[in-house]
Specification:
Elements lengths: L5 E4 L9 H16 L3 E4 L13 H12 L22 H14 L2 E4 L3 H10 L23 H9 L5 E4 L6 E6 L3 E6 L7 E3 L7 H11 L4 E5 L6 H11 L7 E5 L2 E3 L2 E2 L4 H5 L25 H4 L3 H9 L14 H7 L10 E2 L2 H14 L7 H13 L7 H11 L8 H6 L20 H15 L6 H14 L4 H13 L7 H8 L1 H14 L1
Parallel strand pairs: 1-2, 8-9, 10-12
Antiparallel strand pairs: 3-4, 4-7, 5-6, 10-11
Helix pairs in contact: 1-11, 6-7, 10-12, 16-17, 16-20, 17-19, 18-20
Length: 512
């Protein structure tokens, strides 16, 4: 009988949620939901020195925004908690001690100063099978048993390190990369339990994945070098049959290799799901963050769509996917093993397509409120909700980011701030002025205030006055909008209303 699929995303609360992290969430989520499984979020906060206040709340807010909320987490609860590693501290000691008793790990009493001395004396020093018995190192392999017992009795601080075997090829099958092999002699004896009793990632991830019954583990390829340590820990503690299936996801590449958190500030595009500012103002080297995709004006639907295709495709030419379509079509075997380059212009294309795809009436209250706030911040109050929705629907096909709704639609709510009269003047003459004065009378007589009737009257009058309608549409647009942009001009007039349309024609006739 097959086990129920259980996947996990296990971030450290040390800063903003980077593109790569969100894509890892997405692939976990899609895989689990396609298989009818569970998506778990576990907070890996064992490195308390790097803990950043507010980072955990930020992670949950990001997942809520993009609609990828977990089935189990510190917030959602579940049968396999607690879901913060700092609250599971007592669990790890017994497994570390078990490894020592089995001879697969050992105590190391070396102080940071002693280790620094070794690094200075031995180029490229690593605490490994090559040096673990070297003079100057104090551990339960290099020291006599009675001396080790004495150090333990005196409660001398120590760490527990894995004892990497000699001349062993360590292998596992990766769902993306196939069979992966490592030579044990190249790998150092990683710390499993720190002096403060907290586990390192290596021990905690294995123990937690076992206790939480994780069946599949997807993580970035930067964790590949750690994989042999984890394979051995699974073998020593629980047996390889219990080990999850692994998939190491390709890097997301920026302009200069791996996409860095600093690339956003450097190149002017977002790298975080939501805006994040590292609260370390006293540190000149700390990363201060940039505007996130949400604040930049991306729809969550577009964000997960573009992320899904950064390293995966369904084998067709399709590019626009709903979340439901992604769940249906996603396959981890179709994730590429090579890096995927992030293209901000392409990302904006996805957003533009999704803005066109969704009617404003289908927006969430949060999204509608966000766009309304953008207008208000520009000094444009919104008092008529139905008129606001009508305007957004007519201009949305011309918007790439949410802020574009303001530039594309502000003229519906107030007179244009400026008029591009220079675009009109070269071909302006008395005949056109007479036309628009006559057109005002025509507008007053329009039987129904709809774009088709307005356009019909406009064109008939132009023919009657022997002027090409095409020569009159640009001046009409400038009168209503102020520039050479916007939806079809007769639709604009229909939305503005008769009184406002006539007012604007008269206003520009006085200016030109």
């Amino acid at each position: 009988m097959n086990k129920k699929v259980r996947v996990r995303f296990a971030p450290s609360p040390t800063g903003g949620l980077h593109l790569g992290g969100v894509r890892t969430v997405l692939y976990n989520y899609l895989f689990a939901k396609k298989q009818g499984g569970d998506f778990i979020l576990r907070i890996e906060d064992t490195d308390q020195s790097r803990y950043v206040a507010g980072a955990e709340d930020y992670i949950f807010n990001c997942l809520k925004w993009i609609g990828l909320e977990p089935d189990e987490s510190p917030l959602h609860g579940g049968a396999y908690g607690p879901y913060r590693q700092s609250e599971r501290k007592t669990l790890y000691r017994e497994y570390a001690d078990q490894l020592v008793k089995q001879g697969h790990a050992y105590y190391a009493f070396d102080t940071p100063e002693e280790l620094e001395k070794m690094r200075n004396e031995i180029p490229n020093f690593q605490y490994s099978q090559h040096y673990r018995t070297a003079s100057g190192l104090r551990n339960s392999i290099s020291l006599p048993a009675n001396e080790v017992a004495d150090l333990l009795d005196k409660a001398i601080p120590y760490v527990i390190r894995i004892k990497m075997p000699e001349d062993l090829v360590i292998s596992f099958d990766d769902m993306i990369r196939g069979k992966v092999n490592f030579d044990s002699w190249q790998i150092d004896d990683k710390v499993l339990l720190k002096a403060d009793g907290m586990p390192t990632y290596h021990l905690a991830v294995v123990v937690d994945d076992y206790l939480m019954k994780i069946t599949h583990a997807f993580r970035g390829e930067e964790w590949l070098p750690s994989a042999p340590v984890h394979v051995l820990l699974w073998q020593y503690l629980f047996g390889l049959n219990e080990m999850p299936q692994w998939a190491h996801l390709p890097l997301i590449l920026g302009p200069n290799g791996k996409l860095s958190k600093r690339d956003g500030a450097k190149y002017g595009f977002p790298v975080f799901a939501m805006s994040w500012a590292d609260p370390k103002p006293g540190d000149p080297d700390s990363y201060r963050g940039t505007e996130g995709f949400k604040e930049k004006g991306f729809l969550p639907e577009a964000f997960i769509n573009l992320l899904a295709l950064l390293g995966w495709n369904d084998g067709t030419e399709q590019e626009i996917f709903t979340k439901e379509e992604l769940i249906e079509k996603f396959s981890i075997e179709r994730v590429h093993s090579s890096g995927a380059k992030f293209d901000y212009e392409k990302a904006k294309w996805f957003n533009h397509e999704w803005i066109k795809k969704l009617t404003v009436d289908s927006w969430s209250p949060n999204l509608s409120g966000t766009v309304k706030k953008l207008f208000i911040e520009k000094g444009i109050p919104i008092t008529d909700e139905s008129f606001f929705v009508k305007v957004l629907n007519i201009i949305k096909d011309r918007c790439t980011l949410l802020i574009d709704f303001v530039s594309q639609g502000s003229f519906f709510f107030q007179l244009p701030e400026q008029y591009d009269l220079e675009a009109v003047k070269p071909k302006w003459n008395e005949a056109k002025k007479i036309f628009f004065k006559s057109f005002i009378e025509e507008l007053n007589a329009v039987p129904q205030w709809e774009s088709a009737f307005i356009e019909d009257g406009f064109k008939k009058l132009a023919v009657l006055q022997n002027i090409k309608p095409g020569e009159l549409q640009l001046p009409f647009r400038i009168m209503l909008v102020g520039g050479k942009f916007g939806p079809p001009v007769f639709e604009i007039a229909a939305v503005l209303g008769k009184e406002e349309t006539i007012l604007r024609i008269r206003y520009v006739l006085e200016l030109i």
